[in-house]
Amino acid sequence: MRKAIFGLALLAASVGAFPQDVGMVSRESKYSVVETADRLEKAIQASGTYKIFLRMDHAANAKEVGASLRPSQLILFGNPKGGAPLLAEAPTLGLDLPNRALVWEDAAGKVWLTYNDVRQTLGRHGVKRSDEQLKVIDDRQKVLFDKAVD
């Protein structure tokens, strides 16, 4: 009984730790926010497939207005050759493209890389692709994220 209560307490404590959107994937990084974002940026640039559109430092922006945030950086990246036809098919996809990767630090000091699941993102805009096509996109992005966090 004690184990069950302890397990429920742990579960309840973790509920607020991450957003509950099933369309997001969070991976822990063994590096700082800056180093993880640098590693991701380098992987994107070296990929030959993707380009970086923007890197935003949320904590630095907050500091400019007298607010304080834990370290958090957003990287917008994509492949215009692949993205343009998708946007032509579903203009609302422009809300989610280019791709976003958020590198952030939680209250315990752990660093996370969070990104949108490609299947969920395309699906919410009614874009249909074969499982094989989705796997190719997903695998390409996972290579980048692996290089950033591992």
TrEMBL record:
Domain DUF302: from-to ranges: 56-117
Coiled-coil segments: none
Endpoints of the signal sequence: 1-19
Keyword match Isomerase: no
CDD domains (UniProt xref): DUF302
Keywords: Signal
InterPro entries the record matches: DUF302, TT1751-like_sf
Descriptive protein name: DUF302 domain-containing protein
Source organism per UniProt: Azospira restricta
Lineage summary: Bacteria, Pseudomonadati, Pseudomonadota, Betaproteobacteria, Rhodocyclales
